[in-house]
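User: I'm writing a tutorial on reading structure tokens. Could you give me a worked example: one chain, its sequence, then its tokens, then a sentence or two explaining what the tokens reveal?
Assistant: Sure. Here is the example chain.
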Amino acid sequence: MRVLGINAIGHHDASVCLIEDGRVVAFAEEERFIRDKHARGRQPVNAVRWCLDSRSLTWADIDALATPWVEEEFGSVAPPGYHADISFGERELGADWARWPVNIREFAAMAGCRSGVVPLFQVSHHLAHAASAYWCSGFDETAILVVDGEGDRVATTLAHGDGGRISVLRQFSTVDSLGQFYACLTRFLGLGSFGEGKLMGLAPYGRPVLEFPEIELDPDGYRLRLDPGLTRWDPVGTTYRSVIEAWIRRLSERFGEPREARERGLPTALADWTQQDRDMAASGQFALEEALVHLAELALRLSGSRRLVIAGGVALNCSANGRLAHLPGLEGFFAQPAAGDDGAPIGAALHASVMCGVPPVNERLTSISLGPSFGADTCAKALSDAGLAYREPGDITEAAGEYLSRNEVVCWFEGRMEGGPRALGQRSIVASPALAATRDRVNDIKRRARWRPLAPSLRREDAGALLERGGDTPFMIVADRIAADWRERVPGVVHADGSARPHTVDRAVQPAYWSMIDHFQRRTGLPAVINTSFNDEREPIVCSPEDAVRTFLRSGADVLCLGPYLAHSPSPETGKTDERH
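And here are its predicted structure tokens:
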């Protein structure tokens, strides 16, 4: 049984996944192929072709197609009774294109499909997110929390997964979007679209002293008091845009003009941020965390569960997840690593598999590295075409560990590309955490502001020593704190409040990356390396060897480990590769 899940709504984060007999076997985002962050307004044509080609399949081999939306067009007006019938459900449209939404029909034609070949299942957006977390958690029974900006007119869902069934407990509309609150605060501070991670990084520099009275928590959940003209569950519909406008008005009334209007460009030095701006970031982060803790506790109480899983774009907030993962009495926690809309087709396809009579295999996801991989010949050709001299060390992990111990910055490219927004040791830039200056240099290489934190990758078995809580966090999605006796020794991965976004590495899952960290540790005594995504600020994470070589050459990093090969940055004086061994 094969199901293709596609996010092809034409909005952002176009992506495709392939399910075979209840297991996710391939997953890729369109942005990686077209080199355009978030692939806004694009269809995932390259991603679907890769998914099919990677398994030597054609459209005739696909049993079902699933999409994580039920509205015909993004932002269209839902019909009366919509939420009672479909806001947490699905719709089978069959294989005849006459019944398909225009945007999905266009995608299918572009991707080489034909009418009548494969049936389409539309899975409501929050059900898709819920399924992506539930079926990848390894929990047979769990409370489920989905929080995002909006999807099919829903912004927050509390649900219960039990015995392969997912049932809704509470839902909150677009008007009550916590995701939009956080996104609008991000925009207000001049951090731009998709800059929520920057806001999370700025928050520890401020004080949570400001209140957001618009967020009202109550025993049944919460409400956002924004504008009496915004109505919930109205068939005519309160638009996504009107909620954004209401938040910007509220923030402007209290805090003055948005930073974008006040000062163009993102401040690169911490001193360029006013105390009020820092306090707004800290207070917004605190308000979001308080709301999420409240909703998680409500979901646990309503479901009677002692486990929690979370998805939706807000689930990418590592700091909030750090609190959720350690709620009193909680016995298990899982955050979907592809929590945003890029990961929604995973849940849509898994749910469609259930509908087709093939329940997914509910086992704990241990790796999201489900994208393309490239052979040694392809790597060698990319290096040669760029004029880079290279060599094949006996053990590239040992060589990389040695260069890291010399405080050199290494671009690391190995195995299948990871999905989701975080680099997890397949397409990473790595460095020693021993000096804060190295962290600054890596941020310069990435063209990021120097105040932004960088994450540690560490061997799974060292988590108890380096981290205060010391849990297994393989997806860099749950924050922890660096243990006090390590903070001065690894300043490159310690944020202003002592926190970090750890990436624990299991030797059985990532043997090469684990070995590189191990060699570095043997040389330095330090149990972690700096890990950030292999890209600069303008592009998505690299996909191919050609992407890797191009990004390396313009980055200023010292060493490129590309598959089995190692190359050095050309000398700035001669333009020739330094042939160090």
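What the tokens reveal: Residues 72-86 have pLDDT under 50 and may be disordered. The chain has three domains: 2-131, 138-335, 376-568.
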